[in-house]
Each structure stands twice: as structure tokens, then as C-alpha cells.
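Before surveying the methods themselves, we first show a specimen of the format, giving the amino acid sequence and C-alpha cells:

:::
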Amino acid sequence: MRRLKLGLLASAALLAAACATATNTSTPTNTASTGNADRAAATPAVSADELASARSSYNAACVKCHKENGEGGVAKLDEGSEIKVPSFKTEHSIKHTDEQFARKIANGDSDEGMPPFKDRLTPEQISGLVRFIRAEFQSGGPKPGAGH
């Protein structure tokens, strides 16, 4: 029952955020490969409403494989197979620009077994997910070159 209430609350927050940002059609920032500090500076600040909306999208589309803490690991797929899911907290994910990250979410990654989400998520939701993952899982994470 609690999860149902949380789901309804998250859906309401998502709807409110979508209405509030309906005129914002910005795309993720491309910061090239200038390093983690430059990427963080170029990524716009995230409001609480945007985080609530993106958290709802994350819980609906990402948490099954990437887990609530963003650590990834082994995920079981619906057909019974398993895939190894990378953590958002390691260099593997941190090194990507926002644009690369958004493209990977939209188009998937057949090498890693990640499905495409462009038919399930809007460009605004994908952009929100990138900002959410950066804020939630990468703000104090390792820097590129620090190892896994």
C-alpha cells in the first residue's frame, strides 16, 4: 500500500514538473571530454521538483537493473537471463558527457545488454535522468583515472 501511495505521489510530481517545464525543450549539455569538474559546472543545477520527477522516471525505468543506490550489479531479465549492469558511481559512467549519457539511455547499448528507452521516455525525461544520476550518484564519486 505504501508503494502504491509513493507511486501515486511520484506520478503527481512528474505531472506537475512536466506542466511546469513544458516550454523548456533544452537538450543535455555537451561538455566534450574536458573533465569531471567542467562537466559538473556545465550541468545546470537541479531543483527539488526536477529531482522528484526524474526520481520517478528512474524508479519506473532504471531501478530494476541499476538498483536504488545506482550500484548496478547482476540483474535478472524477464526472460530469465542475467546481465552485468555497470555502477553509475564508477569511471565507466562518470567519464561520459551528458550528451553521450542521454544518447545511451535513448538508444541503449547492445554490447552491455541495455535496451533503448527512446520509445518509453520523452527527451525531457531522459535529460532529467541524466541530471538526476549526476546529482544523486556522481556528486562525490570517483574522478576519471581514479580506478573502479
User: Anything to note?
Assistant: The chain has seven helices and two strands. The domain at 62-140 is CATH 1.10.760.10 (Cytochrome Bc1 Complex; Chain D, domain 2). The longest strand covers residues 73-76.
